[in-house]
Amino acid sequence: MTRNGKWPLAALAMLGLLAGCGGSDHDDPVEMRTLRVSVTNLTANQPLSPVLVSLHRGEPAWRAGAPASAALERLAEGGDGSALAAELAAAGGIVDASGSAPVAPGGRDSFELRFPAADDAVLTVATMLVNTNDGFSGFSALPVGGLDAGAGRSFVLGAWDAGTEDNAEAAGSMPGPADGGEGFNPVRDDPREAVRIHAGVVGRQDGLASSVLDSKHRFDNPVLRVEIERVR
């Protein structure tokens, strides 16, 4: 299903003000562009939370080796991308969109982002692997503003560990169907406390006594395919 991105209300208001101002009859029209973003779940048994897609300016939402923001923690532990969307919008948002439902293993979701031409635009895509404590996938601040019409790029991505919750895989700690637990908890108990490559699921069959997961919940990288195309 293709979902259309929404402009921030402030941007719409500004366009309205500009339209009401007097000016030359030869003013150039605003050049509008459309970016299509498609996301595919490559895992066997890890549903993905509703995908967040944000076109913005500025810095990445996360960096390997650095602590996760509170907004990223909410996405990585509970699958809720609303705080991260708001954080990116406040820092230089152009347009964003979110999926309305989880993406099942093998499933796909697509989004179309329509925006005024911005060569400095960057793209962030993020989603949680919901049968984990704080595993997520995606990329942040990928330059896309300079893509020509008809041009596209494709990526296969691994899983990140947000470094905010210990990977105990314990009952009540994961929001996915394998557990149905609380998801987000503001208390951070991961001793490393930094974003890093996810080591994967262990499961009780391989000796993690606290785990409610088993071998079918394991995943190998890559876990996500993201395809980007400037359609106009």
CATH fold-level assignment: Immunoglobulin-like
**CATH A-level architecture:** Sandwich
Major beta sheet summary? 6 strands, antiparallel
The arrangement of helices and strands along the chain is EHEEHHEEEEEEEE
Bin the helical content: 10-25%
Structural class: alpha+beta
How many strands appear in the DSSP assignment? 11
Span between termini: 19 Å
Record the SSE blueprint.
Layout: E1 2-4, H1 9-20, E2 32-41, E3 52-56, H2 70-78, H3 82-92, E4 93-98, E5 108-116, E6 122-128, E7 135-143, E8 152-157, E9 159-161, E10 196-197, E11 224-230
Helix pairs in contact: 2-3
How would you sum up this structure, described in words?
The chain is of the alpha+beta class and 232 residues long. It has one domain (31-230): Immunoglobulin-like (Sandwich). The protein has three helices and eleven strands, in the order E-H-E-E-H-H-E-E-E-E-E-E-E-E. The chain has helices at residues 9-20, 70-78, 82-92, and strands spanning 2-4, 32-41, 52-56, 93-98, 108-116, 122-128, 135-143, 152-157, 159-161, 196-197, 224-230. Strand 6 and strand 7 (135-143) form a beta hairpin. Helix 2 (70-78) runs antiparallel to helix 3 (82-92). The longest helix has 12 residues, at 9-20. The chain starts with a strand and ends with a strand.
Summarize the structure.
The protein is 14% helix and 29% strand.
Task: Using brief descriptors, characterize the structure shown.
elongated, single chain, alpha+beta, 3 helices
